[in-house]
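> tool_call: predict_assembly(chains=two)
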Amino acid sequence: MSADNRETILQASGLVMQFGGLRAVNNFDLTLKKGDLAGLIGPNGAGKTTVFNMITGVYPPTAGKIDFGDQEITGVEPFRINQMGIARTFQNIRLFPTLTVLDNVRIAYHPHAGYSLVDGILHNKKFQVKERELTERAQEFLSVFNLQDRQGEIASSLPYGEQRRLEIARALAAEPRLLLLDEPAAGMNPNESVALMDLIHFIRDRFKLTILLIEHQMRVVMGICEHITVMDFGEVIARGNPTEIQANTRVVEAYLGPGAAALSEKFRRKK
Amino acid sequence: MFKKIDRNKLVFFGGLIGFFLVIQVLQLMGIVTSFLSTILSMGTVLAIVSLGLNLIYGFNGQFSLGQWGFYAIGAYSAADITYRWSNNQDTSALMVLLFSVVLVGGAIMILYRTLSRLRGLDALSAFVVYLLATFGFVFLAVKIGGALTPAMNAVLGALPTWLSFTIVYILAVLIAGLVAAEISFLFGLPVLTLGSDYFGIATLGFSIIVKVLLDNSDTLLGFEEMKGARGMIGIPKVDDWGWFAVFAFFMLVVVVTRNLLHSSFGRAIISVREDEIAAKAMGIDVGFYKTLTFVIGSLFAGLAGGLYAHVNAFLHPDTFNFIRSFDPLIVVVLGGLGSMTGTIFASYAYLLVVEWLLRQILPPGFENWRFVVFPVILLIMMLLKPNGLFGNFEMPFLRQLLPPLKKKPAAESAAAPQEAAQ
């Protein structure tokens, strides 16, 4: 893409992840500029979630380097990475299932609570002020996601789409600069996907975020991502904007098998 | 003018103090015999241990069988302090333990801050650092405490007997809790990295170690007055106001637990139980909160031990057998995991049923059958109500209230009209 002078927010270079004899990710590079809305796609088992896990510190990479802003975050513990400003959602929703919707968001806000353990045990003035602030803040997040009326409900009792929204709300409550979404549209019907796309655009603008998402629904990826990276068998096979990716032979072959590109070309010409 | 007092708070504390006063009056009238009031004291002590365990197991999700070991440590350290004072007018145990607790506690806090900044330090090397620091400071404490003992003897000796004993007793109980807490920190450091079930086995091992050490406390550890497997006698019994002290500590523990759980730190503790991976991804330092909960839970166990020693005035290693470490576990599960109300009621219920009710019901000569009858009751209970007696129920004061929804004007929801489509 053309050079722009926006600040680089995430720079991953030469990432390798080796699980025993399996090289799940090989020589992965990625650069995200501030305000990007980027997609990471690839067939099942291509190593997309492993890349997420490396960025968020769940697995320290076997080799390579990740820089977030001007700090190196390779091998830093997950909770520190979150506090530095990278939040994520999970492929299979991981809410705190038996807690209320409000508490789910309040937990994510914990690093910003602003009072000490002793204040918490004494329930003194400082605690009360800060706790009220924290709660109001959490309720604000819920109202942005239209979940404010559900604040007292148990998270696991919410319908699927709302659980997804809550997970995104919870990730945002940590006040991140970079948001990683792992298959946010999984299991959603077309209407819900459209609403989700609007939501993603909306939160990027409102919270001034950079977003990287993994998604299988091409409608979503092609619809919202400005920049797409395609992986197959742990390697990057293509990069570019949606139209470039759709025309890329290697991408089509990765998804549909060798020879498929020629077929699809024929099909397109016939149409 | 008068500050508005929260109604729930009033009812809760009123209820507790009322309960205390009623028991007091019944004692005076002779309806509550000394046997029953001992059971009540023991029930309160058990409630303190169980609240600690509930914090660890019910709220943080770590299955611990080691609480009985910390209870034993608390009991023996408090007993040793008061024993030496009341029998020999000697404060050496008090001074040495006091300095150990303060110095080691301070060292741990400072080390924790510095070590957590180091990147890539594995748990075992950190553990070695803490252990060396502990040994160093305990050695230092023995020296300082030993040097200051005569002065302290003189100071306390100048006070009236009841006052000096009260001071020694309160300090002994507090020190007992802190000793247990600090040992639990050192023990938990390498062990808390284990998954839940393995952690349970490791803590069970801890209980067994403590029991074996107590069996040989006179020979192996060199504390003559503990008399090893023969049992420690001569501990001053705090009779007249002992029940009050036990109850005051109990109320303190309830309030501390409740306040902790209702703060952001409590929510962080609970998030570890709910989903460790998600908690980590949300910026919660899982290792820290596991350690914190374990230390607070063990602090309560140590306090309870210190109180128990002066209720019973006789300590025997068999009381601290690892089999008994299932007592608080039974109480916590019976009352409902993650319910403070349940834990409090279940600890009284447990002792009243096992020690009093079943003794009354069973025909003479069959008293020991209560250990058959009670498990059967427990079995039926678990089949009928697997969530425990109280499930998730909490008393009004202990329950967390949902904060009222701020009336948000339409502007906010209009900013996100697209979600309304769903």
